[in-house]
Amino acid sequence: MTDGQPAYGAGAAVTTGLLLTLALQSAVGPFATDMYSPSFPQVAEGLSTSSSMVGFTLTAFFAGMGFGQVIGGVVSDQVGRRRPLVVGGVVCTLGAIGCVLAPTVGWLIAARLFQGLGGGAAFAVARAVAVDRARGDQLAKVLTLLGAIGGFGPMIAPVLGGVIASVADWRMVFWALVGLGLAMVVTALAVVRESLPPERRHAGGLRRMIGGVGTVMGNRVFVGYLILNCCSGAAMFAYITDSSYVLQGIVGLSPLAFSLVFAANAALNMVLSFVNASMVGRRRPRTLIRFGLTVAGSGVVLLAAGVFGLGTAWLPVCAGFALLVGGQAFIFGNSNALALGTARAAAGTAAALSGLISALVNSAVAPVATIGGGVSAVPMVTVMIVGAVGAWVTFTLVGRVEVAPDE
Predict the structure, then answer these.
(1) What is the distance in angstroms between the CA of the first residue and the CA of the last residue of the chain?
(2) Which of 7, 9, 280, 299 lies 20 to 30 angstroms, CA to CA, from 235?
(3) Buried-state track 51-87, b at ≥16 Cβ within 10 A, e below 16
(4) What CA–CA distance (Å, rounded) separates 236 from 232?
């Protein structure tokens, strides 16, 4: 890239091209899961296996994403960002090729694990690059915009997957993911310059890696905002995993009506994320987080009223979901900026731990929130209440020491 930018650090501007490239590095998660799910029946039939074994291909991918984030983030603190970012894209692409060629479900599971490792590494390193290149309010704006752009994935991926499943074999989904992986590699090489100077890198070795993890987890502000994100994310993930059961099985919406409600909420979150990004700089990140927690909390209160007092009526449930989803647009980008901005010395490790711990919390939330299935929304709402209360308590406690990123 010949734009005259400095090679390293926060003095280099975050251009539109870099922002889109970092968003692309994070896109493999929703595309590799949501675009693939419509083809589950074809995969089971084509590989002569059971639906539960096909489900393990998703488990393998998520496990790979988790470990990949740790490996990529930690290694990038040691050798710089650009090489691990490119390698992550290459590994992700090779994993997708392995999926295309899979003759058995065991092969497919292994290839999905490999694909997840590469995708997870790219995801963590992309966040670390953002931390290297942006500071203060700009970091909050960049992370919010990354989340907003990333919101296109869950909206587009299921539609693309459904189209592919209706006109082609399931392997075509993975050919599309091969193309995504190649785009990750090409854009990383063409756009991303090294953002971590040699003097800020850490010597390798297991002891140093463990020390870096210990340093990050010993940062009280980082841990506080991470817990806030996990609590708020738990409420959001309860919606993602159980809303289809509640709106279709209990409220009585048709599959088409549910899809429209879900898509509308996703669009609302994306639009409000752009609104949040425009407000960063005019309002402090903690002010925006407080507003988001208030909106999301109001949604949880409305949902609780609808479920416990009004017999799960459609209006308070749908309105509660919209408030919950909309409020998140003001929470995640700002709290991530406040967290990662205080862990700049080990940004790769911090980004990796943030992604891994959030994923573990979400994976634990899913089976709890869906216990009621299409019969009761009480477990879902209970998870949301615990998450909302936990987020507020954590926000209050961590705010006793007001620390903005890089200030």
Answers:
(1) 30
(2) 280
(3) eebbebbbebbbbbbbbbbbbbbbbbbbbbbbebbbb
(4) 6
In sequence order, the 6+-apart residues with CB closer than 8 A to the CB of 56 are 105, 109
CB distance 365 to 241 below 8 Å: yes
Structure confidence by residue, pLDDT tens digits, 53-112: 877 887 788 888 888 988 888 888 888 889 999 999 999 999 999 999 999 989 999 999
Domains 16-201 and 216-398 share a fold: yes
Closest CA to 333 of 283, 380, 299, 267: 283
> Which CATH code of 2.60.40, 1.10.10, 1.25.40, 1.20.1250 fits the domain covering 216-398?
1.20.1250
Note the pLDDT tens digit of each residue in 139-192: 878 887 777 777 677 667 777 777 787 788 889 989 999 999 999 999 999 999
Contacts of 393 (CB under 8 A, 6+ apart): none
CATH of 16-201, one of 3.40.50.10320, 1.20.200.10, 1.20.1250.20, 3.40.50.150: 1.20.1250.20
Q: What length is written for the chain?
A: 407
What residue spans define the domains of the chain? 16-201, 216-398
> From the CB of residue 386, how many other CB atoms can be counted at a distance below 10 Å?
17
SS3 of residue 283 by DSSP: strand
Q: What is the DSSP string of 336-375?
A: HHHHHHTTGGGHHHHHHHHHHHHHHHHHHHHHHHTTTTTT
Class of residue 48 by CB neighbours under 10 A (exposed 0-12, middle 13-18, buried 19+): exposed
Selection from 382, 281, 365, 288 nearest residue 327 by Cα = 288
Q: Say what the pTM is.
A: 0.73
Query: What CA–CA distances, in Å, run from 221 to 146, 226, 339, 380, 407?
Result: 22, 8, 6, 29, 13
What does DSSP assign to residue 2? Answer: -
